[in-house]
Write a structure and sequence with these properties.
Blueprint lengths: L1 E5 L4 H12 L3 E6 L7 E5 L4 E2 L9 E4 L11 H24 L6 E7 L10 E2 L9 H11 L2 H5 L3 E7 L1 E3 L4 H11 L12 E2 L1 E3 H13 L5 E5 L5 E2 H12 L10 H7 L1 H6 L5 E2 L2 H5 L9 H9 L1
Length: about 300
């Protein structure tokens, strides 16, 4: 297959392109630079893309977006929102106008869609939550609608916390936990819906190749855990103590609103659609995922 990927240099994108290459697929990367036969030029802020180079591709995977792991203010919030909505709309409108359309447009989203929901089990049928991230995710997913109107199958992948030593939350935690200074974030009762990086990549490939999958799909493992459970399991795998809780006032002082929405809130999200369509997790429990990543 010929597959276009945006955000190919990111944590998930780099792992995905490596996997797809190993499966024998031809990859075109969306890039802000000049196209060179292996990349396609686009400018999501300007809403431009070299559409002719997308003619006849089999699938488009859109993963690009400004990092949310930073202190939020009006400027950074606009960057986070615009990078997702403008980029997705640019691709979706382009795809809709192609003479030879791709079979599927797979777009990243996030479990931030559900907001802070405590221990309520959440599936793709659950209502959206409230807060900045929930609002961004709703607009993010809606911005793919032009491609759907053009007859292209759309899959919105709501990613949970990615377990990878190469980046993301785990990579930031490791130095602290390796020093034996790790602990619960606040009460530790907030749920973390996570997925191993290899399962996340396989879920994207599954979405490309499974015609029955459309609309929102939760890309999370089958066993969400609380922050306290995550903390104790990571300590166990690293053979380090985890008795130093992180008081909420410190992260809130450093990160403000972002800390409340990303560190001290949670959602118990379940991979309902993936499981119903036959997806098999390689790392379905947290300890096996952590041992795999940290071996």
């Amino acid at each position: 297959m010929k597959i276009v990927v945006s955000g190919a240099s990111g944590l998930v994108g780099s792992a995905l392109t490596e996997f797809l290459h190993s499966e024998g697929h031809e990859i075109l990367k969306l890039s802000r630079g000049n196209g060179n036969g292996k990349s396609v030029h686009w400018d999501p802020e300007a809403g431009t893309i070299n559409a002719s180079e997308l003619e006849g591709v089999d699938a488009v995977v859109h993963l690009a977006g400004e990092s949310v792991a930073q202190r939020w203010n009006d400027v950074t919030k606009n960057k986070i929102r615009d990078s997702r909505i403008k980029g997705t709309r640019t691709i979706a409108e382009c795809v809709a106008k192609l003479s030879r359309k791709p079979q599927v447009l797979v777009c990243a989203s996030a479990i931030g869609y559900y907001g802070d929901r405590g221990s309520e089990p959440l599936t793709e049928e659950s209502m959206p939550g409230t807060g900045f991230l929930a609002g961004v995710c709703r607009e993010w997913e809606d911005s793919a609608s032009p491609a759907a109107a053009g007859g292209v199958r759309i899959v919105n992948l709501r990613f949970g916390v990615i377990i990878s030593k190469s980046g993301g939350a785990l990579a930031k935690m490791l130095p602290i936990f390796q020093l034996g200074a790790g602990g619960n974030l606040g009460s530790g009762n907030q749920y973390m819906s996570w997925i191993d990086i290899e399962d996340a990549v396989r879920a994207i490939d599954f979405a490309i190749n499974t015609n029955a999958l459309a609309g929102p799909v939760n890309v999370v493992g089958p066993k969400p855990c609380t922050n306290a459970e995550f903390t104790s399991t990571l300590g166990k795998v690293l053979h380090r103590p985890t008795f130093l809780p992180v008081p909420s006032f410190g992260p809130r002082l450093l990160f403000g609103e972002m800390a409340d929405e990303m560190l001290f809130s949670g959602a118990k999200v379940l991979p309902s659609k993936l499981e119903k369509n036959g997806f098999k997790f390689q790392y379905g429990d947290l300890e096996s995922a952590l041992r795999h990543e940290l071996a």
